[in-house]
Amino acid sequence: MTTQHDPFHPAVPAGAYDNLLAHALPRARAQKTWEPEDGPLPALFVSHGAPPTLDDPQWLDDLFTWSQSMPKPRAIVVVSAHWENAPLAISGAAAGTPLYYDFGGFHPRYYTLQYATPDATHLARRIAATLSDTTTVHHYADRGLDHGAFIPLMAMYPAADVPVVQLSMPSLDPEALLKLGQRLRQLRNEGILIIGSGFMTHSFAIMRNPALVGHTKAFDEWAADALSHGDIDALTDYRNKGPGVEVAHPTADHFVPLLLTLGAGSKLGAPATTAIDRLWFGNSIRSLQVA
């Protein structure tokens, strides 16, 4: 099923987001915060969009409803498709670090959007301590959250009351992201939500030529089956095993954050649960969680 709303031509830019805030903010502020007795938070893979996400009411509602199905995290660490940096780097952690508007060609309003999260200095130090025994971790104090982080989080936690930092991808190698997720896994026991942010299929070709949709559907169905069986080997080797991959993922950046999420799961190879499942202009926005 595809969306019936056209987010590329909104009457009011980010108007759907304004509507979400009107009814979601009270619930977001009242959401129960994670406590140790809740057990480890899941790890998430979120298919994110650029600003048009904020003009798609169904997508916004799906993201918000998903976040409400679990306790509010004490902190969030996001690994986004839009930041590859080696050695590992952590984004700015100060309260209100300006966002990184890493997109172009949109209405001016999108470049004034704010998502002023609380101070995350403790979180940044906790992540560095978790990784620094084997990895040098740099801190880019002036780099704010990019759209792979702040766009979905604006919908999931619209009150902006959870500390957030972004962690770079050390490379686009699926094995490297899997291992990074495994290193971060323990943070889930502390109420820290781990999010890999990408896109289940990421094809501009399908948006130009809808006749190619068979490729993205085939890849999505293959990935969903592999995820339901916890087939890490197949997903790691997606470039050779995924049907339609040349169209569905001409580059690796939006798929490999999924491996970060799988690595952060409590048990490698455990099945993943789909939270959002639909097509958006021919691309799959399948999003999921692993326990």
Which SSEs are present, and which pair or pack?
Layout lengths: L14 H16 L12 E5 L9 H12 L6 E6 L8 E2 L30 H11 L6 E2 L7 H10 L7 E3 L7 H11 L7 E7 L5 H5 L4 H16 L3 H5 L1 H4 L3 H4 L8 H8 L8 E4 L2 E2 L2 E2 L2 E4 L1
Parallel strand pairs: 1-6, 2-5, 2-6, 3-4
Antiparallel strand pairs: 1-10, 7-10, 8-9
Helix pairs in contact: 1-2, 2-4, 5-11
Would you mind describing this structure in some detail?
By secondary structure, the chain is α/β, with parallel strands linked by helices. The chain has eleven helices and ten strands. The protein has a six-stranded mixed β-sheet with strand order 5-2-6-1-10-7, with helices on both faces. Helix 1 (15-30) runs parallel beside helix 2. The longest helix is centred in the first third of the chain and has 16 residues, at 15-30. It is globular. It starts with 14 loop residues before the first helix and ends with a strand.
